[in-house]
Design goal:
- The protein is about 50% helix and about 10% strand.
- It is of the alpha+beta class and about 130 residues long.
- A two-stranded antiparallel sheet has the order 1-4. Strands 2-3 form a two-stranded antiparallel sheet.
- Strand 2 and strand 3 form a beta hairpin.
- Helix 1 packs antiparallel against helix 4.
- It is elongated, with a radius of gyration of 21 Å.
- It starts with 6 loop residues before the first helix and ends with a helix.
């Protein structure tokens, strides 16, 4: 039986490396998500500015890991009418008023046109661009 010296230190170093990689991934996600948020705000309909100010990135605690180890970050708004502006609305509202409101997409277009930019920001923050 042989003894390997430094195995405890090696295991600790790998554990520290994994924690550092996870923290870097969170930072990279937040950087890319903030760029996306800025693009969404730019394209959002503007009347009073409330909608644009409400668009936000969830904090670090908002990063969710799925069963495969992938991480997610949420970009959105809590305003009830935001969905209606994005997708449009046809029909009566709860007060009985009839609407035929055309959609004004502002969340999806930046993702479609700038996906490579967000990917580059993410990979660049991880040092792999």
């Amino acid at each position: 039986m042989s003894e390997i010296k430094g195995m405890v230190d090696l295991k600790k170093a790998f554990g520290d490396l994994a924690k550092m990689a996870e923290k870097n991934q969170e930072t990279a996600l937040k950087l890319a998500a903030n760029e996306y948020k800025n693009d969404v705000q730019t394209g959002a309909p503007y009347k009073t500015g409330t909608l644009r100010r409400s668009i936000h990135v969830e904090p670090v605690s908002g990063i969710i890991k799925d069963g495969e180890g992938r991480a997610y970050v949420l970009v959105g708004t809590g305003l009830k009418y935001a969905r209606r502006l994005e997708y449009g609305f046809i029909g009566p509202d709860k007060l009985g008023r009839i609407y035929n409101q055309a959609p004004h997409p502002y969340f999806r277009p930046p993702l479609d046109t700038n996906f490579k930019k967000y990917q580059g920001i993410y990979l660049g923050a991880l040092g792999r661009a």
